[in-house]
Design brief:
CATH architecture of the largest domain: 3-layer Sandwich
CATH superfamily of the largest domain: Rieske [2Fe-2S] iron-sulphur domain
Strand content: 25-35%
Order of helices and strands: HEHEEEEEEEEE
Largest sheet: 6 strands, antiparallel
Bound molecules: FE2/S2 (inorganic) cluster
Structural class: alpha+beta
Number of domains: 2
CATH class of the largest domain: Mainly Beta
Length: about 170
């Protein structure tokens, strides 16, 4: 017959029961289970409170309202996202500004792009034309989100500069 019959393996009748290693580990296990269940509950409640329409993948960023974006013409650099945003005749496309050699930010030059780090050059389409850069600068997918903003998904890239244009339907 076991000396103690409770799950934590200590004698309730002792005046000053010492906590054994086993009972301490049992308490820690119970605490970890309660904490895990609480975290799962919180995650499911938060997921319920925030509808899917508000979830934007971390690879995605907003260009803004189509009316604001498309009133501009030409190519501008977005330092925060390290991209070039080009607008022309009601269309927009977005190209990376990250050099395909070692990741420096390329500069816009008359002939296309130039990397200040090791001298790679690209033509105006982003095709690598010189230096150590092994591949062209990609374009990212642009689309209209549920909010009406123009969004860019940096996880979806193409090298097709014609296909990269996005024309929002108004
Ligand atoms: S990082 Fe651009 S050439 Fe090396």
């Amino acid at each position: 017959m076991p000396k103690y019959r409770n799950s934590l393996n200590f004698d309730r009748d002792e005046k000053d029961p010492l906590m054994t290693r086993r009972s301490f580990l049992a308490l820690m296990g119970v605490g970890a289970c309660i904490a895990g269940a609480g975290a799962l509950f919180n995650a499911s409640v938060l997921g319920f409170l925030y509808p899917n329409a508000m979830k934007v993948p971390p690879s995605t960023f907003s260009l803004g309202r189509p009316d604001d974006v498309l009133t501009r013409e030409g190519k501008v650099f977005n330092a925060r996202q390290k991209v070039f945003i080009e607008t022309s005749a009601g269309r927009v496309r977005v190209q990376t500004a990250v050099c395909t050699h070692l990741g420096c930010t390329v500069n816009l030059v008359d002939t296309g792009y130039s990397c200040p780090c090791h001298g790679s050059t690209y033509d105006s389409y982003g095709r690598n034309t010189g230096g150590p850069a092994p591949s062209p600068l990609v374009f990212f997918k642009v689309y209209k989100g549920a909010s009406g903003d123009l969004l860019v998904d940096k996880a979806q890239a193409t090298l097709d500069w014609n296909d990269a244009w996005f024309t929002p339907v108004t």
